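Chapter review. Work through the record for Zn(2)-C6 fungal-type domain-containing protein before attempting the end-of-chapter questions.
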Amino acid sequence: MQNGDHVRTDNGHSFSRPGLVLPTPSLQNQIHELAKTLPPPRKQNTACDACRSRKVKCNRLPGQEKCQHCLSKNYPCTHYVQQATSEKKRGAAARRPRNISTSSSSSPVSASTPPWFKAAFGPWNSGRLQSYGGINMQTTTPTLLHHLFAPPESDSTFFFKSRSPGYATWGEMASKLEDEAFRAEFALDLVEVYFQIVHTRLPLLNPLQFRARLNLQATQQRPTITKQDEPLHPALIATVLAWGAKFSEHPLLVSDRDRNGGQSQLAKALIDRTRELAESLKVHRIPNPNHVVISLLIEPLQCQDPRNDNGFHGFWLNSGIRNLLGLQINHKSVMADIKDPEARGTMIFAWWMACLADAFSSFYYRRKPMLDDDDYDIDFYTVDPNAHEATDPTAPSPREQLEFLGYYQAAHALARISRTIARRLWMPSTDQDGIPLDAILSYISDLSKWRDAHLSKVGVPPNLEANWDFVSAVSACASDAQYHVTWVALFFAMDEFGIRDDAFTPSSINQVETAKRKIMEEALQASLRIAALAGVLTSNGYLKLDPAVMHVSCINAGNLLARLGRPEVFQCIKALEQYSYAYEETKEHAREINREYDLTLQKGPHNFHEMASAVRQPSPRSLHSEAMSVDAITNGNGKHHGNTYMSI
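Structure tokens for Zn(2)-C6 fungal-type domain-containing protein:
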């Protein structure tokens, strides 16, 4: 393992603050495990009619026909309301397919799946699926590695016909990939890097099962004995390896980066080959739990610049959402029917990851969200203290479950605000006429309420303990920045579209200018906050290990600070330069922001349109805004235990 000396993800350190808190490193590392212990969504209330009307617990002992209340009062213990509800649900169940398997078996469509579903999709590893250069669901892991690590000149056909000097493009050590034993050792290193760095942020896999099922033995067939021995999906293996190559410091990749200006050409090739392999195996087309996970992991793996042909365009995120909808994970009743806690835990986390990513990315990149508020009836599950198994020492406590649920409830609340704004910005009428004033006032109110309710619980706390580790730092800073960048993105949206004032009265015109100044003030304060958080992470080298969580915040905050000529912009620039270790495109973002800052120093604040009046006439608060520096958080000594916190 080559990168073990630069990241700690499970050392047990945490920081404390009042109320619900961000998951500690150990909890964050075990979100997948925690999700399995959450009770399924509540099914139909089975209380009798008398207890239901009195809104009390209906307690019927085994073997008795009446509940305790009806026995004591000599009431008839009837269940007319329950029967009516059951008949209604049975009618709904008949109108949609049920019991689509969420097993990780090679045939995910269960025997009870309706014939129309099998006809439309069929088993995901059926013979009619095209193989890609010889790779199919029966391909052994060593053979897959043989193809994935082929020399770069083979990219035109993905697979090679002969080993040749083409390896020189990847550095001096790349020729060792000709050896099968070296390929296996290299692959294991990439897998461990994935679980140390990426899995802590996107816990969609079971590390123990993945390692056990990797099966690097070169057998002719991939036998299926038990669930844990079932072969892994080839595109899933490729995705994990591509992630590992982004962050690994294996000598082969170090040599590759040294040869290619700090960027790994092998890592880029693995991303391209992973995407092409997933497409060939119909990951984007066939609803299957494995395909959900692969899709959601491929999206942030890619270039995050939407201007790039291979950049973020939402395709794989949308594919993951379509797969989730195809499996009907958006139905509480379907989620409750998943009996396997491992499968249910994975689908719970996958759903919320997709739901949040859809909302935030739609706002950031001006796209129409795939999901509406009424597209799902599953909510965050109510924790039942009695559900905790005292005999299981590894099961999270009700307190830990509340922390987990509080964190994601806050994220979901912010996602709903972002989704609302994204839909407004998508409307052609907004492009033509501007954003309605009442909508702007509503967004200001919603964001302010969110801050009061959630920021102190999920953002960077006022007092940090020593030894604040990688997971704690990135998790808290990213959650904090997620809120603040919303103000910055809203500022840029208003600058582009303007505010529509239908009244045209002196009072309404004054409201428009007041709203502009408010957004300007909040956006500036938010940008300073993000710059400081980015500075903390950069000073510790954490952003070179971040799987595309903070980059949007750094870019938006950097753009605003550069246009205003604020020197704090250099914290964002340095952050993006460090980000380029894994995401090459951020280096160009850093250059663009730097050029914008230099131009502002020459011409003064410029490049503003509809918000120009708020920039020219800032409020007293924004005139006297104090930059939030790294020292403000770290207390000036570079360690994460300062006690200064900027009041938002």
